[in-house]
Amino acid sequence: MWRGSVRGSSAPGTSQSPVDLGSPVAGTEGELVINYRTSLVFAREADSTLEFKVASGSAIAYGRRRYGLNQFHFHTPSEHAIGGELAVAEIHFVHMDRDGNPAVVAVFVDENGESKGPRRLEQGMPMGLLLPESTTHYAYDGSLTTQPFSEGVKWMILTERVTMHPSWIEAFCERYGPNNRPVQPLNGRTITLG
Length: 194
Known about the structure:
This protein is mainly beta and 194 residues long.
């Protein structure tokens, strides 16, 4: 596991992301239902990362709301921490509901030489390999982790991790990393686990 973080600075507001998820309480706003298409998607360069665009139709349901998936991207090392520990990488699936409210599903990534995912940045990214089976997750209200750090973002961080091939992680780090924002203060917010 990685320790420490480098990118970004503090921003105005008291509900900033990412945070340390080390002390959650039981219970969430509702069941998280993920319904993504599993076709290959391809990337474009965007704000110090690879941003993967997806076809319309992929969405999540959470707390009686439906959020359509707009894109997903990677941070390395992870942005969220658990007890001060960072994962090798973190995937952010960025969604919006029909009223323009953002929600992000985050997935921690570990390295594994047996991973069936891509080994080169130029390869298509099979979405089916980027989600664990379980939807058990941490949840809290926060912000974007890139400028302008806007608040009002619903965060759901899955507890189960996925793996990626070390050569892909190494290639990503050489081109973009580290590109994570430091952990921000909770300021009295509650993190739930369900």
